[in-house]
């Protein structure tokens, strides 16, 4: 299994020696570029979006029309971009191909978007069966990397996944909500007024909505969402 930690200096040295070329375009990297060249980073799909729900907009807005009529439970949504190339490929490598070290450079790009960091970061949990299959929790790795950049703390065990549910990818929004009913538990612990939930990809928001509800019921005043990608799908 992969360790629950931010990559060490040995990991960073290994990747400095291995990745002398951009992993996306294969062009040589400069001494200031660690993983991807600035040209490829400029093509990350960082479009304007609603700061409440994360939906792509023509310009950045605090609340879109949907949020004005039916706002999400959480307070602020921070994302790196849309779930399309090249971020899509990077997240697939990070999540499904065991490249856990990608958490650090991806977190660095995401951190540029976060203007008011939460003091406590809470990663979305995996069920133990899926954890055993994957070897690590990608949201946990992302939270640990973000915490070192934002000077925040991480509680890796605040949430527990109680049920092993089917994958969410092919489910509709209503099916996702039913799929996640009573799937999570928030352990008794002292929480600050402001926390952030960390997930690698948010589609309908069903998972982070369930976790936000648990936090608000516990008395948390502000819940933010930090994610790498928001998928622009209309799932009913």
UniProtKB/TrEMBL annotation:
Transmembrane segments: none annotated. It comes from the Bacteria. Residues 193-230 form the Phosphoribosyltransferase domain. InterPro entries: ComF/GntX_DNA_util-trans, PRTase-like, PRTase_dom. Pfam families: Pribosyltran. Belongs to the ComF/GntX family. This is DNA utilization protein GntX. It comes from Photobacterium aquimaris.
């Amino acid at each position: 299994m992969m360790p629950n930690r931010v990559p060490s200096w040995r990991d960073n040295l290994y990747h400095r020696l291995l990745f002398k070329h951009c992993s996306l375009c294969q062009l040589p990297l400069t001494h200031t570029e660690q993983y991807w060249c600035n040209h490829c980073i400029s093509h990350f799909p960082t479009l304007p979006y609603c700061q409440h729900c994360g939906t792509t907009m023509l310009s950045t807005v605090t609340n879109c029309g949907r949020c004005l009529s039916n706002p999400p439970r959480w307070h602020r949504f921070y994302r790196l971009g849309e779930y399309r190339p090249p971020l899509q490929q990077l997240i697939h490598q990070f999540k499904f191909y065991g490249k856990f070290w990608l958490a650090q450079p991806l977190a660095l790009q995401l951190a540029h978007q976060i203007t008011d960091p939460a003091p406590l970061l809470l990663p979305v949990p995996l069920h133990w069966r899926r954890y055993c299959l994957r070897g690590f929790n990608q949201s946990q790795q992302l939270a640990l990397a973000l915490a070192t950049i934002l000077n925040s703390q991480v509680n890796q065990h605040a949430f527990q996944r109680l049920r092993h549910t089917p994958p969410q990818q092919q489910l509709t929004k209503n099916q996702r909500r039913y799929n996640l009913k009573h799937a999570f538990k928030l352990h008794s612990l002292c929480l600050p007024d402001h926390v952030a939930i960390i997930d690698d990809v948010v589609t309908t928001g069903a998972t982070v909505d369930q976790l936000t509800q648990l936090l608000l019921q516990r008395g948390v005043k502000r819940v933010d969402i930090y994610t790498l990608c928001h998928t622009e799908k209309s799932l009913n």
